[in-house]
User: What shape does this take?
Amino acid sequence: MYEEHWKLRAKPFENDLDTSFFYPSREHREALVRLLYAVSEGKGCALLTGEPGCGKTFLLHRLAAELAERGVRVALIKNPASEPLDLLRQIARALGVRNADTSKSDLVAALEQFLVYHRARGSRAVVLIDDADVIDDERAYEELRLLLNLESGGRGLLTLVLAGPARLTKIVRRVPGLAQRVAVSASLPPLGGSETSGYIAHRLGRAQGRPEIFDRRALSEIHRASGGVPRLINHICDLSLLIGASEGSQRIDARIVERAQQEIRDLRG
Assistant: This one.
């Protein structure tokens, strides 16, 4: 709607999962490298933590895309079940195992056979579980631990990556056998002031927009209002571009950003 006014090829601040807009802040880049290492080296389990809106889901999708390009079989679980058997079935279906609706013993056997088959052909497997903290049955975490016992030639058949808020670490610690398998952890904090400006410029650049659309005071106000949380940055920037276009502005200044913030506050009641 506002793309023509700002001469953009696309909306740069959509809260979607288009990984071409991935901004490699120092923390995001390090987290991605750590998770790629965990999978490439066949580690048992890795944790990705961060508060809501800091980019965990986005990073998991970027990780999944890079792993798929390397020939890794990826199972991405977005809404994990808490019931142990249902969770195992979710994992089996996401990996591509046939006949997942069977008994637990048959399902585990089918998973093992599937993983051994693909390992023999040089393909590793990884299970990425987003919002893993919503799993409220410790028996489900125990089943995940047991999956990590599946091996061939003395090496585990899959890597497990669990993502969630900081409290996920405490949840995993309640299952010592699983906690002991965590070889790598990564955290995504909010962006700093300069990173917020870099994030906005990067997204504008990906949409072929001018980085100076937002003036210096506007950038400072966006960081203050969002706390450096990417999801909130996107919301404020998107609405600011809409307001600016409707006013016929040539740049986004602090006044427009403040108006966008007020509209967001009003919407949230």
